[in-house]
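The freezer alarm interrupted the setup, so I double-checked each line after restarting. Inputs confirmed:
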Amino acid sequence: MISFSLFNYWAVIVLMMVGFYTLISRDNLVKKLIGLNIFQTSVILMYVSFGKVTGGTAPILIESGDHGGGDDHAAATTGHEAADAAVDAVGSSGELVMQGASGVAHAAAESAEILYSNPIPHVLMLTAIVVGVATLALGLSLVVRINEAYGTIQENEIARKDNAA
Amino acid sequence: MSQNLPALLVVVPMMLAPVAALLNRSGPAWVAAVGGSWFALGAAVQLLRRVMAEGVIVYSMGGWAAPIGIEYRIDEVSAFVAVIVASIAAIAVLYARTSVIDEISEDRHALFYAAFLLNVCGLLGIAVTGDVFNVFVFLEVSSLSAYSMIALGQDRRALTSAFQYLIMGSVGATFIVIGVGLLFVMTGTLGMMDLAERIPEVWASGEGDRTIAVAFTFLTVGVTLKLALFPLHLWLPNAYTFAPSAVTGYMAATSTKVSVYLLMRFFFTVFGEQFSFEQMQLDMVLMPLALVAILAMSLVAIYQANVKRLLAFSSVAQIGYMVLGISLGSVLGVAAGIIHLFNHAVMKGALFMAMGCVMYRIGSVRIEDMKGLGKAMPWTMAAFVGAGLSMIGVPLTVGFISKWYLVQAALAQGRWFVAAIVMVGSLMALVYIWKVVEVAYFQRREGEDEIKEAPLGLLIPTWALVAASFWFGIDAGTTSSVAISAAETLLGVMP
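Predicted 3D structure, all chains:
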């Protein structure tokens, strides 16, 4: 079933396949890395789409309610229960959209009329972006050294030189 | 201090890595690496003791409880894997001193030890964490440091094989992220224990069961790429062949083992045995692949001319044994897999280290260059034979213990065919080990050049592993009791 409301996911899949195909089909090592990066970026987009709750606002607590810094444990427990409830809701309605886990669910439980988007996927993707940058940097530095050692960055030529040696 | 041990286990090697890099001189950096690895070993052993005595240790990072914070969760399996990684690292770092001076240029020593410490940190992190996204982060920490260590090899092909590993490893890690994301969408949590509770609920509700199945598939493919299960092993032989000797010995014994652990974690803890084996029919996929890995890769190993490459293919075959144990899905089978984790780490580490000694003296590990080494380097080749016997599975060695359990587990389910293939695999191991032994002991060396025995700095760590492979082969009680209780924990069987 194709529906326009899942547009981001189609974009994700197209990007993912573009990246993966580039990664597999290109001989040039730099192009391979570009493919890998597109592939990883599509996953970042996917996570960001997960976090968006339809009609939800930015996950910043709006009401300055009565819960000041205090009891972490109690907060964790409520968050847990609320998240459970959210899962049940997902189960019954069958939507991919999730009400939000832990902290957000806790906030949502306190002020039920405000709907927040889920910040966790965004936070996770900050980490994934850092990992992606590190991978790319290491990959490119390997390509530089391969170029110094072989005088080429074409995979088929490298293979030929290896076989000749 | 002892209360924070689960965190320190990971944090100390991590903090020592930049210290090693900043010291920027070979000697002090090595001291930092030794400190980090031996601290990790002490911590891991103590954690294993505590887990065996008191049960699961739960540690909340920064005092934040599980659903919000990241939880470290140490049970028998994770503690055991942490001990394997830390002990191999502790021995490999001693070995590295002499080997690195020989094989890596002086200005890169400090960076090598920094990468080594990061790798130890990442692998230990995977073993102890109870959060699936945290697993991905540690996986990348260990993988990135592994790529850079492999690239330090002398041969220029080390660069291309590191690059190939980087591409395949990153794809595998990205698959894991996709799987984790899909699970998060369906359950709203990243904690392994929370996931284990909620996945059956979501599955039973019938809504989104397809998403769970897809997540399962992505995770399986991603992790099997990392652990080099046939046919996703293509990165491994080159990476092991061209990496510096110390790196090969260390990595062959640790990194794929931790990935096997991760596979068990996902199958048994996160998804649950019932889901993995009844709904997903995992054994129908894994068992044939494992059997093909054992047969095909042992066969390929027989035809290799480079001994490091031979051992690398044999590693892929041995991973087949571990996955075979998992795919049996019984306590005995999983226990056999876990025992083989440890045993293979010990014997493959010893074999690769013995090859490092040969590399140190004759600068080559091709079979035809090894003529007469049995006389010239008696201790090195004796170590190779000792660990090789274990590889074949001769009684009184660790290799025998794991094969014994594996065959028992297969027979308990009436799978004669599987047991037979395990035996055939052992025979093939005999062939490829014998090929090396024959050339080294029964062919005369031509030429005048005098070859001396390898230095003690290399021999002692090698022999420590060989001795361990006999010790735990004779006194198998310790490892098997830990492995069996670990398997019971994984499968949720109360002892």
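Quick read of the result. Residues 281-495 of chain B form one domain.
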